[in-house]
Amino acid sequence: MTPRREIFAAALLSIAFLLLILGIWHVATLPKVEAAGAADEYAKLMGKGAKKSDGFPAPSQLASAIAKHIADPFYDKGPNDKGIGIQLAHSLSRVGLGFLLAIIVAVPLGFLIGMSPLFRRALDPFIQVLKPISPLAWMPIALYTIKDSSISGIFVIFICSVWPMLINTAYGVASVRREWLNVARTLEVTPLRKAFLVILPAAAPTILTGMRISMGIAWLVIVAAEMLVGGTGIGYFVWNEWNNLNLTNVIFAILVIGIVGMALDLIIGRLQRLVTYAE
User: Fold this and answer.
1) Which has the closest alpha carbon to 207: 159, 275, 128?
2) Which of 87, 141, 197, 241 would you call most buried, defined as having the most Cβ atoms within 10 angstroms of its Cβ?
């Protein structure tokens, strides 16, 4: 099978799986939908407003919610009623800033650890102690010291993003071929030029792997962090809709979280492949 035909077959299989899931979902919620429809008709005949349906929402209800949110994603009707576009913008800005700060700290420090066995041995105990700590465990300390929920969320993203990047950068730098370093030493290349012209290109795929892992963790953590601190963001949107007992919007938000997470992973994965092929 040619690569193009294989991609086409995989796409068809994915669509088939999606249709199967939607079919099972529709059948599972069908009795509830019919009962809710009958109740609405009865309420209209009696001169009352439509009865709000209970239970797990059907695919048709989710489709209606998607259309509603996409039609006006940037509306702002107060602190607890903002469009999904605004919520996503807040979450992505926090993730982006925390991720950028992690790059600024992790990549240079990873270079230092990878190039110096002395620093590696000196810093390894601190890394091994701090790395397993859940990022959300830092939230109370961040809220107490920073006293700003939005900046505290950025700090938590920084904490969860820094370790995969730091470890992968150190590993990539330490794994650069000795022959390349010996050639640079023979040519009397300065340490700065050696870092940028020899070590960085060789370690770039491994560094981007760490960034890809960090981005996945960061997007996962920001949802939980925003549930804790509230205010704005996709995590807060999920929690607020749950408090409003609007399960349809909760499922919609979960779908958005998954799609955005996939898009972020694809972007860094594409960059990683470009760097790998450039070698």
Assistant:
1) 275
2) 87
The tokens 């370093």 sit on which residue?
181
For residue range 9-21, list pLDDT tens digits in order. Answer: 888 999 999 999 9
Distances (CA, A) of 116 to 109, 119, 120, 130, 201: 11, 5, 6, 21, 19
- 56 touches 32 (CB < 8 A): yes
Backbone angles phi, psi at 186, to 5 degrees: -65, -40
Q: What are the residues facing 82 on neighbouring strands?
A: 76
The SS3 call for residue 75 is coil
Q: How many CB atoms lie within 10 A of CB 64?
A: 14
Q: Is 92 exposed, middle or buried (CB count within 10 Å of its CB: 0-12, 13-18, 19+)?
A: middle
**Degrees, nearest 5: CA angle 240-242-243:** 65
Token pair for 76 = 């702002």
Angle 138-143-83 from CA coordinates, rounded to 5°: 100
Q: Which amino acid is at 225?
A: A
SS3 82: strand
Cβ atoms 199, 176 nearer than 8 A: yes
- Dump pLDDT digits (tens) for 88-137: 999 999 999 999 999 999 999 999 999 888 999 999 999 999 999 988 89
Q: Is 60 part of a structural domain of the chain?
A: no
Total domains in the chain come to: 1
Q: What is the DSSP string of 267-278?
A: HHHHHHHHHHHH
Q: Which domain holds residue 187?
A: 88-232
Express each pLDDT in 25-69 by its tens digit.
889 888 654 445 544 554 454 444 434 446 788 999 999 999 999
Average pLDDT over residues 249-267: 94
**pTM of the predicted protein model:** 0.83
